Structures are given as C-alpha cells and as structure tokens.
Amino acid sequence: MESYIPISYLNDFVFCPRSIYFHQLHGRISTRLYQGKAQIDGKAVHEAVDNQTYSTRKNVLQGIDIYCQQYGICGKIDIFDIDIGLLTERKKYIAVIYDGYIFQLYAQYFSLTEMGHTVKTMRFYSSDDNKVYPVKLPEDNPEMLGKFEQTVYKIKTYKLSDHAQDNPEKCKNCIYETICDQSLYT
Q1: Percent of the chain scoring above 90 in pLDDT
Q2: Mean pLDDT, to the nearest integer, of 156-176?
Q3: How many whole angstroms separate alpha carbon 129 and alpha carbon 132?
Q4: Most Cβ neighbours (<10 Å): which of 13, 31, 125, 158?
Q5: Nearest to 76 by CA among 59, 89, 92
Q6: Secondary structure (DSSP) of 58-100
Q7: Tens digit of pLDDT for each residue in 83-133?
Q8: Residue 126: closest CA among 103, 95, 87
Q9: SS3 category, 53
Q10: Gap between the Cα atoms of 3 and 171, Å rounded
Q11: C-alpha dihedral, 108 to 141 to 9 to 30, nearest 10°
Q12: Alpha carbon distance 180, 148 (integer Å)
C-alpha cells in the first residue's frame, strides 16, 4: 500500500516535525483532552465547509476529499469555485501567513489540477476580521514552490531521532509541549 502525506502535516511539519509524532500518539483519544482554544476555534470555522453547508451552489466544491499523486498528498479542500477557478482556504484569524499555510494551499492546488480543474486564483480568508489574502499560484512563485517540494521531500525522509527544535517560541505555542522530551520552553 502506498503511503501518503495528509495536507495538514505540511503546516505541522514546518511548525515542528515532532508535533506530527505526538498527534499520532494521541490516536483516537478525544481531541478535547489535548487541543487548545486556538485549535477548537479553528475547527469551528471549518464546520460549514466540512458539513458542505457553506454554499448551495452546485459549482462550489466544499470539503471534498482530494489526492495528489505527483506529491503523494491527500486531504480536503475548503472551498473551490469551479466557474471562476477560485480556491479559498479559510482560517479563523490570520496574523501571519506562514509557509506551512501556503504549502497546504499548494497541495490543494496540485490535487485539484490533477483532478482536471483549472485553478486560476488562490487566497486565504480570515473569518475573524473578514480579510482576504491573495496567494500567487505555484508557477508564479518558483521560490515558494521549491520550498514546498523540499518540505514534501523532508517529510518523506524524516527521522524523529534526527530532529532538534531550535526555536523556543514554537515550543511555547505547542499543544504537545508538556509531553515533548525536547521542549525548549521552561
């Protein structure tokens, strides 16, 4: 059986590769036991998309499963308007657009493209402040595309024992900080 990378791992890996390990350790344990307010609020923003009640228009794909064979990535999209080729990733609040956010959008882009859709524009939507942040298509941003491909490669070749976090701020904001044996936050 071929293994694949969940789209959410792209952002998690950039934040801290160890967080993926700890997420897997929790397995089927209720997320209420370890998720913080930010994660709970973020899930609430996606509720309409996940339940496919964001729009009743037939030309709007929402919360559908996607797969990209080229990169071995799978997951779900938030919203894709087929008629205008607009791919939207919703976030509760965006203070900074991190590389991991863009990588998730790229994964959705490549998946939709492989499925035969034409993505013309991409954006993030911040629901708390109703702001829209346009994102260049991968072919229009070769530097970010290179970072995306490098991150996919690193995920596929990652060894937990080889990693050492060097950013205490990431540890401070990690929901797994209390169980991580390499936390830099004290």
Answers
A1: 58
A2: 79
A3: 9
A4: 13
A5: 89
A6: TTEEES-EEEETTTTEEEE-SEEETTTTEEEEEES--SS--HH
A7: 999 999 999 899 999 999 999 999 999 999 999 999 999 999 999 999 999
A8: 95
A9: coil
A10: 28
A11: -70
A12: 26
SS3 of 5, please?
Answer: strand
Side chain identity at residue 83, one-letter code: D
CA-to-CA dists, residue 89 to 82, 109, 144, 154, angstroms: 15, 11, 17, 24
What's the rounded Cα separation, in Å, for the pair 178 and 186? 10
Helix (H, G, I), strand (E, B) or coil at 115: coil
For residue 120, the SS3 value is coil
As a dihedral over the C-alpha atoms of residue 118, residue 121, residue 127, residue 131, rounded to 10 degrees, the angle is -170
Select from 141, 2, 158 the least CA-distant residue to 71.
2
Closest CA to 121 of 162, 167, 95, 83: 83
- Single-letter residue type at 160: L
Residue 185 three-state SS: coil
Q: What are the tokens at 4?
A: 């694949």
Q: What is the mean pLDDT of the chain?
A: 85
Over residues 20-49, the mean pLDDT reads 59
Compute the distance between CA of residue 152 and CA of residue 5 in angstroms, rounded to an integer. 8
Q: Which domains does the chain show, CATH number per domain? A: 5-179 (3.90.320.10)
Contact 82, 117 (CB under 8 A): yes
